[in-house]
Amino acid sequence: MSDIIHLLPDSVANQxxxxxxxxxPASCLKELVENSLDAGASHIRVIVRDAGRTLLQVxxxxxxxxSTDARMAFERHATSxxxxxxxxxxxxxxxxxGEALASISAVxxxxxxxxxxxxxxxxxxxIAGSQLLEQDIVQCSVGTNIRVxxxxxxxPARRKFLKTDQTELRNLLTEYNRIVLVNPQVQFxxxxxxxxxxxxxxxxxxxxxxxxxxxxxxxxxxxxxxxSTETELVKxxxxxxxxxxxxxxxxxxxxxxxxxxxxxYFHKAIxxxxxxxxxxxxxxxxxxxxxxxxxxxxxNIHPTKTEIKFADExxxxxxxxxxxxxxxxxxxxxxxxxxxxxxxxxxxxxxxxAMPIKAPTMQIDPSYNPFKTHIKRDSAVSNWEDLYTQNHExxxxxxxxTSAMLFExxxxxxxxxxxxxxxxxxxxxxxxxxxxxxxxxxxxxHILFKELCVQLSHSQALxxxxxxxxxxxxxxxxxxxxxxxxxDLKGLGFVLEQFSPQAYTISSVxxxxxxxxxxxxxxxxxxxxxxxxxxxxxxxxxxxxLSLANQMAIxxxxxxxxxxxxxxxxxxxxxxxxxxxxxxVILSILNHDDIQKRF
Length: 599
Ligand code: ADP
Ligand code: MG
Fold this sequence. Notes:
Largest sheet: 8 strands, mixed
CATH topology of the largest domain: Ribosomal Protein S8, Chain: A, domain 1
Low-confidence stretches: 333-408
Bound molecules: adenosine-5'-diphosphate, magnesium ion
Number of domains: 3
Radius of gyration: 27 Å
Number of strands: 22
CATH architecture of the largest domain: 2-Layer Sandwich
Shape: globular
Helix content: 25-40%
Number of helices: 16
């Protein structure tokens, strides 16, 4: 038998990577403008046509590239920004992966002109689908001018996912705002279809906020008060909205070391400081700039994600809470605030009385049982293996379309087949074809995913009331996503009630969730749904179900008893699939050939 494994050609590998990094014109804008900032540009121009579909051009006056670097920049993992692993913890640049230009040039026609100050002439490069088409010498000004034309020309599926020009232009401007608001020293211009939509001279942060959001006769920033604090751990500065002027369309921005971030926990600190000061349905605007030792944060997350991990979140929560209260108090915004220093503050927990709690109002129907075979209600949580004694004849389309692929060469595992757990991660079984390896977490996630899909289609599920209802506070875009998911979350057993403008109480959760933290689970679901492209309702229902299933499933690393293993494998083999709907492999077979080759 001839060997079948080979390395993918670069063009294919780059296209796969591009699927991760470049999802839409806005992600392309982010990568290109960040490169210009890293190159020290003082003026950056963004020019788009048809919301970036046909043209997305970024012109900067940064340091430019030599002709060798200009070519090298399009290679995957080619970067000038880090060289050794420890550099990752000292990042002061926006880029560091060396993936953006390689990815963009895999899925578009790219033309770049670049020149360094010390060079007489510049370099011009044309590249499309990862193939170099031309490289020559040009006369051009110092800096880099990069034109990305016909984005996704060779990836029709991606093109199909793009929304209307209006929506994509809004996405572009959202991304643009996230960058200009934290780089006020840089001049920016944004031109769309020959119309100048934004022209921002270098200025202070406050002037920049005014320039971006000020429209009416009254200055926008007159609604804001300064906030500023400096501790050994972190420096926080910026502006927050005066409670009496906050409205329904609040602008909420947080940045860390020059990078836009989403941080639900820190958002909660701000909302806690405002509690009691806001009208119902209103939420404050804020523009907060965190400065912290790069060592204390982890930005090595997915390139398109904006969550950032902090080493010391609880301490920063306290510092931010105190600073917000101080800002509100100092400007006499709220003279009645009992202002305490950060060291005196107790860590706020919802159950400690920081917020009033409503008693759960959920009524449970004890006779309801979504499973066809009988399950005693009180055993539902502790006895997880009993929960999938159901056949799946009536699975809705959302399952059959994606994951329920039976394999042709179905391995047979019977009650007498020995099972072995390996590394507390995989279940091994000898079968006719060789050895089957089952990923325990994903197999369980697959089973739960199907359960959840059934529940979604019937809108009924076993719920479990929480002893202490929890409060989930949300940032603006998370709030919007939650609104969209509410009916389905209810169908899955979450009981949510609006608590304040941007908060809900959670009084019951799906029984399958067990002891998992309800707030963390919901946030993860919200972010998973946001991070996945969806064009139709079934698709986000699938993401919702998969996100929950992944969170509920037994973790990797958990030792399983013989009975648990047997039960998991039996349930899984009842309706097996090699992959989860997101493509992750659940089951793999080491066949006799594979085994023989090892000896
Ligand atoms: P990264 O930014 O992660 O290093 P990119 O693929 O975005 O990866 O860029 C690769 C390299 O190309 C950068 O490290 C930088 O050296 C160079 N580069 C890209 N854009 C510019 C620019 N506008 N001006 C100067 N150099 C650039
Ligand atoms: Mg980059």
